[in-house]
Amino acid sequence: MRMRTLVTASLVGLSLVATQASAGAAAGDPLIDKQWGLQQLHALEAWAGSTGAGQTIAVVDTGLDLGHPEFSGKLVPGATFSCGGAPGPCGNGDWTGTDGVGQESDVHGTHVAGIAAAAAGNGAGIAGVAPDAKIMPIKALENGSGTFEEIGAGVRYAADHGANVINLSLGAQPGIQVLTLLGLQAATKEAIAYAREKGVVVVASAGNETAPLCDTPSWEVGALCVAATDADEMHAVYSNLGVKLNLRAVSAPGGSSLGDCDADVWSSVPRGMGRPECGQADYDALAGTSMAAPQVAGVAALLGAQGRDAAGIEDALISTARTPIAGLRGVYNPAYGYGVVDAAAAVASQG
User: Fold this and answer.
1) CATH number assigned to the domain comprising residue 86
2) Which of 122, 143, 207, 294 has the greatest number of CB atoms lying within 10 Å of its CB?
3) Choosing from 42, 68, 108, 111, which is the catalytic residue?
């Protein structure tokens, strides 16, 4: 059965002033002062203990601009599974796909990958959460959509080719989730289970429908569901709740979708595809749970670089996550899941 699934991303500008970043990091990454998400995650503090070296994050998405300076020296071989119905792989994960033409909606994968693991201190743009992790580009979506089979094939490829973390910033169209719940569609579900059996952490976006449940595939047992917060650490108005049967859910910065560019999540986009209103040719500010998931994937890579296994990584993410205002850690609630991921606390925790 071939079902179309849509990437869960909002392209609306947001508003809020970024928290002050360290002077040294800002000098090497001109846009880091706009990356309030790094501050919310306490990522800069975490880098004293881990930068993700030795880890590979597979971004199963719309493909990447493989020549973007944020990915120089950081890419491992990837693959394309958006093959127009032909057997895959049929390419190397480049965002332009088999026809060589980049679609506007396909800037998404480059943005997601930059959030997770863009280079730091390279004199350009931004810094990723895990700046020394490698990136595996997997194109399973074309023009913003793909099939369960294509996504499942991308997940399996990543698991078989050395990925330590898989990011899925995508979700099924409203109403299609029932097919997975009833067992009528299992390609992606089975692929996630396969990856987990191989010791890979799978992180997936909760969805942008303001719904009470995590979308498919973040609903699946083997995936960690990630809801979105805004720059004030409030549950984002568009974000689905972090609710699933096994309660494996957390939150991370995704933006508010209510204001100007600087409260969105800044990251890389294919060169020349930045929107004029945000003023950068090779970078842009987007919002959605699609932007929240790679923040967590990056922290997972920081933890993996410390020698933790998949179960240990998830346990550290969950037990150290914090609930804003209440100040609780590792305590579940429907809005935040177990809380906003805290990279510094997770890296400092006992594995």
Assistant:
1) 3.40.50.200
2) 294
3) 108
